[in-house]
Design a protein that fits this description.
By secondary structure, the protein is mostly helical. It has 6 helices and no strands. The protein has helices at residues 2-9, 12-15, 22-31, 44-54, 75-95, 102-110. Helix 3 runs parallel beside helix 4. The protein is elongated, with a radius of gyration of 23 Å.
């Protein structure tokens, strides 16, 4: 939402949050949030003021993982989640009248014979 707000209202350095809406300021404050920050303000003026105060704070690093739990899960939990996801895919494919032979797919990937779109 911060990227969208910047596209609509201009970068915060230029706009100084003057045109930013209540929700856009809230998203920005959440984006730049620090554990010691006070509670978020309940009106747009106070949110804009707080945005100006933290504007020079470093942006948070972008995580290379799509989920926080991927790095800490053990192999058993990952295999259980993977098999549950595969069960969903299988059910959806059956609804569409298509079945997949997983052994064939695995061997094609291992042998680098897969010709699907990347």
């Amino acid at each position: 939402m911060v990227k969208v707000a910047r596209a609509i209202n201009g970068h915060e350095m230029e706009s100084q949050f003057l045109n930013w809406k209540f929700d856009e300021c809230g998203a920005y404050l959440q984006y730049k949030r620090s554990p010691k920050d006070p509670a978020m303000a309940n009106n747009v003026g106070a949110r804009r003021k707080r945005c100006l105060e933290i504007m020079m704070r470093e942006s948070p690093p972008i995580s290379p993982h799509t989920s926080d739990d991927e790095h800490d899960c053990d192999d058993g939990a990952l295999k259980e989640r993977t098999s549950a996801e595969q069960a969903v895919v299988d059910a959806l494919m059956q609804m569409g009248g298509t079945t997949i032979d997983h052994e064939d797919c695995n061997s094609m990937v291992e042998e680098d014979e897969w010709e699907g779109d990347a």
